[in-house]
Fold these 4 entries.
Entry 1:
Amino acid sequence: MSDTLLSVRGLRSGYGAVEVLRGVDLDVAAGEIVALLGSNGAGKSTFNQTVSALLPKRAGSVRFDGRDITRAHYREVVAAGLIHVPEGRRIFPNLSVLENLELGSFTRARANRAANLERVFAIFPRLKERVTQLAGTMSGGEQQMLAIGRGLMGEPRLLILDEPSLGLSPLLVEELFGLISRLHAQGLAILLVEQNVAQSLEIAQRAYVMENGAIQFYGTSAELLATDRLRQAYLGV
């Protein structure tokens, strides 16, 4: 695709002697929501950490906005605008909401910190109400808001959301997917990495399904919903 923002080819990675990713290819275009789907243990989080340079690559290439970032340091990856909101939120529990948000602009967009804070508070009014509260005392849903808000503070060009609905109530999951749609409507490219197949396919333009560290299916959301194997394995129909 001519407007490709993220291009991953033949990506291999793992832990010690264990290879988890087995030659993964994946693309995300500018302004697109792409879902990376799969069950727990499929290799999705390993993919995110490898693309974000938190895990070393054993083979393959990663290009972002036409630039080869295969061997880049994770700070360079963030500085380029590829920002990862990790599974489990990974907020700093002993820091305030404000301090957590400010850390999101440590590497990128520091000059726009004040304006971006106001943007995050407009998206998440609850964070503004709790600006001085220690992050570790917040509810799970509020911590997820904080994690996403911290990612937005860096003015991402591509936001990787790793299992954002994990542990949230059904109502909060609905709110979360609505938020992701609104961010996309503002032009943000999103790689949505989820076990929640049905709701992810509702908002994503395209999707990849990962099993055992390899991509098994990919296509538009409509094409995947029409795939019998996918519907039987993940949707129970």
Entry 2:
Amino acid sequence: MNGMADTSKWTECMSVVRDILSPEQYRIWFEPIKAVSLEGMDLTIEVPSEFFREYIEEHFIDLLGRTLKRVIGPQVRLIYNVRVTKDSTVTYPANGKKDLRNPEVPIPAEQVISSISDPYVIPGLQRLNIDPNLNPIYTFDNFIQGSCNILARAAGLQIAEKPGNTSFNPLFVFGGPGLGKTHLAQAIGIAVKDRHPEQVVLYVTANQFVSQFIDAVTVKNKLNDFIHYYQSIDTLIIDDIHEFAEKKGSQNALFQIFNHLHQLGKQLILTSDRSPVELQGLETRLLSRFKWGLTTELTVPDYETRISILESKSFREGITLPAEVIDFLAQKVTGNVRELEGALVSLMANATLTHKKISLSLAEELIGKIVHVPKNDISITRIKKTVCSYFNITDEILLSNTRKREVVQARQIAMYLSRSLTSTSLDSIGAQIGGKNHATVLYACNTVCDLMDTDKSFRQYLSDIERILKTDTTL
């Protein structure tokens, strides 16, 4: 095969490769290759992209090398031409050849030149003028900070200032559904666009990425343009990375894109419903890269954060909620942010449609229809009511600063039961029972434990109140 005319040796090689690979593998990875020339032992082939060459090198070079040696000769050397446009290519210089006699010698990546002609336009997006696919509602102003997200939020703000130039690359955010992963990821993207308008930012879900990959490979056969499209992004946000599980082709494409962007100092932000060590069905090489930067978890918001979320949401909706309604919702809806905001929206909708004023009684009437509330659900509000009823004192007296022994003990019992029967923090318990700090709550709990061991009457008080809380749902 000297020159372009004789391709019989390459055709013979491909007949061997075709018999070994699956029809789909051969169609995707070998049919697009063109034999250019065979001069002596130097075989030159043309491939459609740098990504294509890298994939061949990683997955098929051993098979291709053995076949070429058998058909052409043991001294054969393979040279790649990477197609630049429809009418021109770039050939590796002599020191960039892949010597099949020494397959461990890599081809210098800096000698590769590649570009895109007639770029593949992913549905809904445009080359050079890319719609970042960001929801303007998901800003940092609307992302309430709490102990559940303080590290992730702080890292996100630093990334927004210097995308790609912090140690948080990639930023891997994980947590359960409805805890704000998408909100935070998009907030970073919005902040990057605001502070760096020249940056190309893109938010995409894993399922969208996979769908576009399949379209590029099996429908339009434009995998080259697909890869280069994503490699042109400055800040790439991929949501629900766990959806890549068992999707080998998409994982390989993501691996190539990740490496390219990371090496160029571009920012990557990934979200998942579980940590990297818990992800199943993803290649080890991908998982190891996910751990290169910062991995941070979003957890269930505590009482104070839930209060802040409700206040912020009601303010954005232009309504003022009674404090007792906010407290009630924060006590009852403890699952995630999405549930909490949904409960508030449902309450506002019911009030509007029925022409009722938003009140505690309306919230109590609707809460069971909005979220699942166990019949024996115990909240701090219910504990306070039960303690007051048992000792025949008012809520105002319980929360006052009086040092009367019976009131102090009632308050300490309320604090103790709030700690043992709810998941509320010490700070939150103190804030709701007399405006005390966590040290006071901890002292109260220790005092109750001591009195239970030494005072039979006090032990009976506590037993009675706990029994009422667990059996009487009317309070």
Entry 3:
Amino acid sequence: MTTIILKRGKSESLRRFHPWVFSGAIYGTFPKNAELQEGEIVRVVESIPTPEGPEYEFIALGHYQIGSIAVRVLSFEDEPIDRNFWQRRIHEAYLVRKKLGLVRTDNTMFRLVHGEGDQLPGLIIDVYGDTAVMQAHSVGMHCSREVIADVMEEATEGLVKHVYYKSETTLPYKANLGQQDGFIKGETDANVAVENGLKFHIDWLQGQKTGFFVDQRENRALLEQYAKDKNVLNMFCYTGGFSVYAMRGGANLVHSVDASAKAIELTNRNIALNFPDDARHEAYCEDAFKYLERAGGDYELIILDPPAFAKHKDALRNALKGYTRLNAIAFKKIRPGGIIFTFSCSQAVNKDQFRLAVFTAAAQSGRHVRILHQIHQPADHPINIYHPEGEYLKGLVLYVE
């Protein structure tokens, strides 16, 4: 195992358990000039000067990768990164989900592993029934995929029988891994899972992320409480999650809008799965901004859950303009006394910046607006207290006079 030696004074964040080693903090390697392979497990040490010469103090073990983040830390203990390690870590994550009350017969989908939040940086695992959909965001996790899949059934106490690997679009493209999505353990065609008693088709083959946005579960349940007798507009509907909850909440009508024809098809399938032949729902394949601009003032409840406008900090300025414009149109269109659920899933946009964009939109509209709820990602998408960068989902529930 190659050892990475840090420059003096560069271990402070690691000693506070931040799980990243940046390339600028590295002094060298042992053996000297070692040819590091992306994805390999390395030891990270700090050189401590003594009268007899330097001593090397262990800091962490992690996956080496090419880029500004050079090591993603797996453990701050000097321990074997073997099958037992993976089984233990994933089982710990599963026990947390059980304690949260997410493993139930009326709720068969949840996030099992959330990267740094579960001390497994670069790894995402979502569970849908007895199938786990795994995404690797680092070459190291890609290299470990087989052992992770192998321990999954044991780590989830027999729950997970199948593992679908979906990392074609999440791995570093320069790594040239030639990865193809597919089952790496078991295989199944059963793709319906249950969330809070509602059924959803999960498109892990071609859908976004792992096939469903499980991070909005609690916010969908909150929306259900506000939906009774209201005309509801669900923008950027994707799988129609908010629409299905609004229907169960007793909405007068629900309109779902998305620019993707596949998303509209999936939304209609999910509505039919739960509310067959229910005339309250209609779906429209159209650009969200254009639909909002031409919409009348018929809606009393609007959901704005767009895809990430900023996937990196270079796009931040344009993203904030996009959030301002989108919310300004919604403020203009919603009926007096209406409610807006508005979200940002852009990690590059912090909650203060998002709130300022929405505030600007409200000021432009001239409407009086109250904040009813400030909402964020759910507990199965935990934020490591030593890694605040893990907070990405933020939202507001607004009452518009």
Entry 4:
Amino acid sequence: MGTEQTLMVGLAAAVAATLGSMLGLGGGVFMVPLFTLYLGVEPALAVGATAVAVVANSVVGSRKHLGNGFVNVRLALLLEITAIIGAVTGAVIATRIRADYLKILLGIVLIYAAVSMFMNRRDQHRQVDDSTPDPWDLMARYTDPASNQIITYMPEKVPLGMAVGTFAGLLSGLLGIGGGIVKGPTMDVVMKMPLKASAGTATMMVGITGVATALVFYRSGNIDLQVAVPAVLGVFLGSSLGAHLTSRINASKLVVLFFAILTFLGISMIWSGIGA
């Protein structure tokens, strides 16, 4: 891989990480399409490099989200129990499946995430107080810098969230995207969490899932350092910026932006997969 392509991989990773951190999608959901469609990276190597970069994105982005109080650590660890199982399974399958099938699958997932987020774009979480029953001990609060309001919430339908987490982990393993594309919308739509809390929590979770995924890709020989290293460096630049922007931008505007980007990338991936 030449110097120009290396720089472009780093730049694409920085842009992807910025976007991914803003809604807790992990960045991988943007990196795989950008690497394969526009930079000529082989799909298997793109997925492997992305799996590594997602971990770096999570580490950097989580630090900012933790400082803002957006991360529900107890919930993240609980949901990761099932997500890791799915991630290892998906990564093993990914080493044995055709690249064009992966592109089509990722395209479908991108469009699903775009539509689900747009349809539920208003922050409709249920405001709670300390007297609300909390059987899972998951109630949390944070101060939203954009509105200067104290937001108190409690995740709902936790068992369903864990079940969906298995599917999120499976996608993480198959596509190297960290599973944030499912985890974020699940916490937002199913568990009725505020958008910024679901984004912060998902950012932490994708790193945990990504470690399991990256190990499987490493053992299968699908991690090329010429792609992975500039991707990780780009992620370090972009993820902190994305986490900072999350605290400053109105949540509904974020969702509209992501709807447009995810829909475009999803259609592009499906078209490329069918063409292959």
